[in-house]
Design goal:
- There is one protein chain.
- By secondary structure, this protein is mostly beta strands.
- The protein contains 1 helix and 9 strands; from the N terminus they run βββββββββα.
- The protein has a 3-stranded mixed beta sheet with strand order 3-9-8. A two-stranded antiparallel sheet has the order 1-2. The protein has a two-stranded antiparallel sheet with strand order 4-7.
């Protein structure tokens, strides 16, 4: 869920939310994107993902990355004319075991 300045990622199947986007490599990840009060886009250029979202509407998409990597989460709709692309978050594509450890460190229930 975005609010125009940041994204909050809810890991519903694990029972927690985070400001971080961590995804396991070689696994399909379902994202449901929405915003509160503003139009925005969840844009992760390195993963080839851009999802436009309108307030209080859900848009679903899947991603599946095959490489371990760090990535930036960008906004393109809410930046002023001098700063067309704004980094508003960071994320990681990590191994399945690292993802499970991270879920546990967040107080989540690992599958």
């Amino acid at each position: 869920t975005g609010d125009g300045t940041k994204w909050l990622f809810r890991y519903s199947q694990f029972g927690f939310q985070s400001k971080e986007l961590q995804i396991p490599v070689n696994q399909k990840v379902q994202l449901t994107v929405s915003t509160i009060g503003v139009n925005d886009s969840l844009w992760i250029p390195l993963l080839g993902l851009k999802v436009d979202a309108n307030p209080f509407q859900n848009v679903s998409t899947e991603i599946n990355t095959r490489k371990l990597r760090k990535f930036s989460i960008m906004s393109i709709n809410l930046c002023d004319q001098h700063n067309k692309h704004m980094v508003i978050g960071r994320g990681n594509a990590i191994t399945a075991s690292s993802f499970e450890s991270w879920v546990k460190s967040q107080g989540g229930n690992a599958a």
